Amino acid sequence: MKLFAYSFVVVLVLGLSGTANADSVNIYAAASTSDAVEALIIAYGANDDDQVVPIFAGTSILARQIDQGAPADIFLSANEAWMDHLEARGQTAPGTRANLLTNRLVLVTPRLAAMDYDFASAAGLSAALGEQRLALADPGGVPAGIYAQQALSARGEWDSIEDQLVFGDSVRVALTWVARAEVRAAVVYRSDALTTMSVAVLGTYPEDSHPPIRYPVAIISGSERRPEVLAFYAFLRGPQARLIFEDYGFGVVDQD
Predict the structure, then answer these.
(1) Tens of pLDDT, residues 197-254
(2) How does pLDDT run across 25-40, given as a tens digit for each residue?
(3) What is the rounded distance in angstroms from the CA atom of residue 137 to the CA atom of residue 171?
(4) Share in percent of the chain as helix, strand, coil (round to 5)
(5) 20 to 30 A from 124, CA-CA: which of 12, 75, 89, 104?
(6) What b-and-e string marks burial along 234-245, b requiring 16 or more CB atoms within 10 Å of the CB?
């Protein structure tokens, strides 16, 4: 089942060119990074004439918008495949791509209605869900959903729960549903689970149950000539940003 909510994000992306200051730095960032990136922008302290404008959505949505000419300056992707796609099409500035962050997958339930499920056994998830749903980001294109499907398949759970799944267009949609107890559980990033007290973590999926979760960042082709873009890009990869990302539950890749 697919329930695509919060479509306003796409409208924001499409309409940005009419609202952004010509001197602004537009960072298109995966929905899972929204709290951390907002905190980074505050820490960066750009003035009104040199502002940083964040646009958050599922990575697949952002990548497609960039490919269609949306006014992005920096892209922070939740997986490497979508960055590969843009790079292959000449959309990223040569020499600016770098792996910035890492993450882990967790199973969460509403804190006030925790699910009776032995995560370590990797058995009985369908029964634990009962008549309710397990929420994922859409595995048809959203990185968190792709990783979740791989992890559930590796543990032998996917086939038994396939009819009990509901898909959101970003990992934050899945998180919202479980935080509101609209679903029985959700598979989200660890960093997402840390953003709300409304969910409880039942377990962390083994790293060998899915490919490594890496967030690459790159400057979009043409924007590398703008000093304000280069300045914020350098800040993203610097020591102050590292501390902020770590506070929000991300691992940070050592930068050369």
Answers:
(1) 999 999 999 999 999 999 999 999 999 999 999 999 999 999 999 999 999 999 999 8
(2) 999 999 999 999 999 9
(3) 5
(4) 45, 20, 35
(5) 104
(6) ebbeeeebbebb
**Please, what is the end-to-end C-alpha distance for the chain in angstroms?**
43
Domains of the chain in start order, with CATH, are: 8-102+213-252 (3.40.190.10), 105-209 (3.40.190.10)
Cα dist from 202 to 191, 192, 222, whole Å: 15, 14, 45
Do the Cβ atoms of 223 and 74 come closer than 8 Å?
Answer: yes
Q: What predicted TM-score, i.e. pTM, was given to this entire model?
A: 0.84
Q: How far is the C-alpha of 107 from the C-alpha of 49, rounded, in Å?
A: 42
Tokens 């995966």 correspond to what residue?
30
DSSP 92: B
Distance CA 75, CA 120 (A): 36
CB contact set of 154 (below 8 Å; sequence gap of 6+): 206, 208, 209, 210
Strands 134-137 and 98-102: unpaired
Rounded Cα distance, 99 and 214, in Å: 6
CA-wise closest residue to 144 among 216, 212, 78: 78
Pull the structure tokens for residue 250.
Answer: 């991300």
- 92 bridge partner residues: 220
- Local structure of residue 57 (DSSP, 8 states): E
Question: Cα–Cα distance between 31 and 108 in angstroms, integer?
Answer: 18
The Cα–Cα gap between 2 and 162 comes to 12
The DSSP letter of residue 164 is G
